[in-house]
Design goal:
A: mainly alpha; 0% strand; B: alpha+beta; Sulfite Oxidase, Chain A, domain 2; five-stranded mixed β-sheet; 10 helices; 12 strands; binds protoporphyrin IX containing FE
């Protein structure tokens, strides 16, 4: 048995709920750190930044599942829904910190969403992820049928906007943000290349793309 | 911690010459422990009554892109900077241009404590007990000529010691500028310390500008050059984004920045649930400085 097979076998013994549990507790742990002074003298911004990065990391992890399987044979498809749901959860906590702890004032919140381009873009990413989170259950998958796959391709523009949002947050070009955005562009680019690969039937292409999106 | 190890003026300056400073900074000199500020000089009439932030806040949450763009980068990296010896090149429209050694400057100026509100354009704020001298004293040393209208400042450029300067995030060296009347205003100081410590390196050791009614980036750090000129000087953030960072950059709740509404600010140090509070015109210094801008459109000249 090769290394990949062994990891695949081992991963099948990991119950998916452990991923949910770990993911659910992570922001709580960050909140604890922020509340107890381990995040420096401005814990609100620090928390906002940590949760923003976590959200983007989860988003990227979700986009990695298919290429990793295609390229290496490593199959983490079982965990992908959990990763997707957690992505939305992380983005939501990021948004809540911004609303409640950072900006605080309702009129200012509206103005920021409309007038600050980096907030507008982040908010657009959040809005795109909303229907995905709401349909991440077996009932919706059954009910929507092929439309479900189509719908979940919204994760591509959401990822693009999330990455762009991070780049735009910086007052100057930030190396980290550019790395994240490049990763996202590479992962989306890979899908475009796959879709136009010669020798693949049209059917196979759609199937691939939709699996990616789900 | 880094700021404990920086140059002590008692090490390099004859005792009589730093007396003034020592009275202010009893602890720092390692002498005259317990000598209080109050009895020696009395509080400056320019100081605020607000409670200063602890040194930990002031020296751990910094924007000093020469050492990196994250708030903790300056505190982590600034130890690399060497500040001894230090001199300031004063040139342009002055009677006595030249290189002025910092020790020498400090023998000729009067230092005092100034507790100022400090407001960053990113909407956070602090209260900082600076120690320093009025910039007008330094300018008088060099003798400002009648035709001069502006003062330009430059930060040290030394990429070996300032890792942020190896990236192209901003155009180096960092540049700032003031109109001459702003520079001569008694609120405008050159600071050399905070509390009874020499200036922490991450806060702009050994010599930095503090202009309390303007956004923090105007208060340029680790200054090596001061130039008197008759043209509005280039300023670093303005060069990057002219629509975001104007030459004046006066704190103004009514002029919204493209990135941040400036109507409210967040005092640092209140923890997770710190409340935002309303921004004050000219950061609370309107009585002292509003007249400098009589008749000017503060939206156009933001
Ligand atoms: C898919 C959605 C989103 C993702 C992936 C995301 C990700 C990020 C990341 C990575 C950062 C930078 C963290 C750092 O500098 O270390 C950030 C900062 C930030 N995000 Fe988001 N974000 C999203 C949505 C939103 C939304 C909906 C809002 C608010 C409406 C928002 C508001 C902010 C703010 C205010 C900052 C910090 C800006 C500052 O430093 O002043 N984000 N976000």
């Amino acid at each position: 048995m090769g290394v990949v097979d062994r990891i695949n076998a081992a991963s099948r013994r990991v119950p998916v709920w452990t991923v949910y549990l770990l993911g659910a507790l992570w922001p709580a742990w960050l909140l604890y750190l922020a509340a107890t002074g381990s995040m420096g003298v401005e814990p609100v911004k620090a928390l906002e930044h940590e949760l923003g990065r976590l959200a983007l990391q989860a988003l990227i992890a979700g986009l990695l599942v298919t290429p990793v399987r295609t390229i290496t044979g490593l199959n983490l498809m079982r965990f992908r829904r959990a990763i997707g749901v957690l992505t939305f959860y992380f983005v939501s906590t990021h948004l809540l910190v911004w609303l409640i702890l950072d900006v605080q004032i309702l009129s200012e919140i509206w103005k920021d969403i409309l007038k600050r381009p980096y907030i507008t873009v982040g908010m657009a990413a959040f809005v795109l992820l909303l229907p995905l989170a709401m349909t991440s259950n077996n009932w919706s998958v059954r009910k929507l049928g092929p439309k479900w796959r189509k719908l979940h391709r919204l994760v591509y523009p959401a990822a693009l906007l999330g990455g762009a949002h991070f780049v735009m947050v910086g007052k100057t070009w930030e190396f980290d943000a550019l790395v994240y955005l490049s990763l996202i562009l590479a992962l989306l680019g890979w899908r475009v290349v796959q879709a136009y690969k010669p020798g693949k039937s049209r059917r196979r292409v759609t199937k691939d793309a939709s699996r990616v999106a789900s | 911690m880094a700021y404990k190890n920086v140059l002590k003026y008692s090490d390099v300056t004859p005792r009589a010459d730093y007396l003034n400073r020592r009275q202010l900074m009893g602890g720092a000199a390692g002498l005259a422990a317990g000598m209080a500020l109050g009895p020696a000089l009395g509080a400056s009439k320019y100081s605020t009554d607000l409670k200063p932030n602890p040194l930990e806040d002031i020296a751990s949450y910094n924007n000093f892109y020469e050492f990196g763009s994250a708030k903790g980068d300056p505190a982590n990296n600034a130890h690399m900077l060497t500040i001894d010896p230090w001199s300031v090149e004063i040139d342009g429209m002055v009677d006595r241009p030249g290189s002025y050694g910092l020790e020498d400057i400090l023998t000729k100026v009067t230092q005092e404590e100034r507790i100022y509100r400090f407001r960053c354009v990113e909407t956070w704020s602090m209260v900082v007990p600076w120690v320093g001298f009025e910039l007008n004293q330094l300018l008088d040393l060099a003798g400002v000529q009648g035709a001069a209208k502006y003062v330009a400042f430059q930060t040290l450029y030394r990429p070996e010691e300032m890792p942020g300067q190896r990236s192209v995030s901003l155009e180096w060296p960092y540049r700032e500028g003031l109109r001459l009347d702003e520079a001569m205003h008694p609120l405008t100081i050159m600071a050399t310390g905070i509390y009874d410590e020499p200036m922490p390196k991450q806060n702009g050791a050994p010599l930095r500008l503090v202009v309390p009614w303007k956004y923090g980036y105007k208060s340029i750090k680790s200054i090596v050059r001061v130039t008197l000129t008759d043209k509005e000087p280039q300023t670093t953030w303005n060069m990057l984004q002219p629509n975001e960072y104007g030459f004046y950059s006066n704190v103004n709740p009514e002029v919204s920045h493209p990135r941040w509404s400036q109507a409210y600010e967040k005092p640092i140090g209140g923890g997770l649930f710190a409340k935002r509070q309303e921004t004050l015109m000219f950061n609370g210094y309107a009585d002292e400085v509003a007249s400098l801008y009589d008749g000017m459109d503060l939206v156009v000249n933001h």
